[in-house]
Amino acid sequence: MQPIVSKFGGSSLADADQIRKVRAIVAADPRRCWVVPSAPGRRHPGDAKVTDLLYLCHELASQGVTFQEAFGPVCQRYRQIVSDLGLDLDLDPLLNEARERITYNGRHGLSADYAASRGEAINGRIVAAVLGCPCIEPTELIYFNARGRLDEDRTYAAITERLAGLDRAVIPGFYGLGADGNVKTFSRGGSDVTGSIIARGVGAETYENWTDVHGLLITDPAVVPDAFTIEVVTYRELRELSYSGARVLHEDAVFPVRAAGIPVNIRNTNDPDHPGTLIVDSDHPQAKISYEITGIAGRKDFTVIQIEKSMMNSEIGFGKRVLEVLADHGISFEHMPSGIDTLSVVVADTRLEGKLDDVLAALQASVKPDKIEVDSNLAVIATVGRGMSHLPGMSAKLFKALGDAGVNIRMIDQGSSELNIIVGVNIEQYELAVRSIYHAFVSDTTTPRAVNA
Length: 453
Ligand code: ASP
Hints:
This protein folds into two domains: 10-202, Acetylglutamate kinase-like (Carbamate kinase); 295-441, VC0802-like (2-Layer Sandwich). Helices cover 38% and strands 19% of the residues. The chain has helices spanning 16-27, 50-62, 68-85, 92-107, 113-131, 152-163, 191-202, 235-243, 254-260, 318-328, 349-352, 356-367, 394-404, 430-443, and strands at residues 4-8, 32-37, 169-170, 175-177, 183-185, 206-211, 232-234, 264-268, 277-280, 295-308, 342-348, 371-384, 409-414, 420-426. The protein has a seven-stranded mixed β-sheet, with helices on both faces. The protein has a five-stranded antiparallel β-sheet with strand order 11-10-12-14-13. Strands 4-5 form a two-stranded antiparallel sheet. Strand 4 and strand 5 form a beta hairpin. Helix 6 (152-163) crosses helix 7 and helix 13 (394-404) packs across helix 14. It is globular, with a radius of gyration of 25 Å. The model is unreliable at 446-453 (pLDDT under 50). Aspartic acid (ASP) binds next to helix 7.
């Protein structure tokens, strides 16, 4: 029996009721033997996440002021959960140790990682008590190297060795041991990464990521309120969609499982019968295609720098010099559509902040253009789908949908993989554009088109 690794996010563990749902989910499938919890999240809008409170504790401790106003609610939160669950678990030693160590770290200018990691460390003990299995300390499993990256060899060897004699265990997410011997966390949302590493380490059949939504939606529900959930998405599509603004997993969580060919299943703790979204490699048997497109994602606030120069196409090294100017100013670009005598670079506004005048002056000096125009107010929309590739008429359909809706397309970019079509539109037309594409490809398709059926 190949095991399943089940990671539960903060909203799935926010209070005793949620933790009971987790217990039922784990009990429903004997393959769910490795459980990775986050810290308790928000119980309702306006509520505080335990991790945020712990960062605040560190912040206050480093200013040398009392942090009880933040630590008190953390203690109360955990005690309430333990009491509501009727657990015989004394949290005082853990909470006292955390308080002392946060004070020490704050006073000595040490990092906030220890404080933040207590959210998962203590919650892990609670979840283990509920499930009746051991809680394994992540500093004995997850190792970082001196550059702050995962030390893969040491980590996977430790997972194999440490978990070998166990049938099941809880492994708190988000942190491990840094090269300096101190606790080190991943970036925010990093329990997803822990789950992925454990899944790879134990050779899981599936990595389940339990949260409070049904999965990845075809598009942003703030723009299309009744957007469907994506049934199956490939890792590459997910990467394109996440890059363009869709958010479902921590970015770094994809790599360990992808390397091992382990599918990720996003599931909803509040609706465990829903199959959720499955993330697989494109050659996986379940990578069937329901719609011509898989998802639509987008981001606002881009600027286009359009450079015009006649005979640019025969000027060797022109593009290289443009990109060198950007690189010299520490700016990465997003897209680079070009014409015969024009070349545009699309850059996120945040990257250009305070640098635009210098960049323009450097471009003038370096490529001596006939004209440079700067146009901000751009939103970029990526329509992504493995079903689009080699299928004639996809771009025509997309452009017609936008044209019919009166959306002016300011930029077009399609990678040769045909996995996506990217368009740039005025920010004011962003929502309209996304809705038009959604309706053309998804909701107007009464019968989903089984492209490879
Ligand atoms: N508790 C951490 C955070 O809020 C990590 C996680 O939940 O994945 O970022």
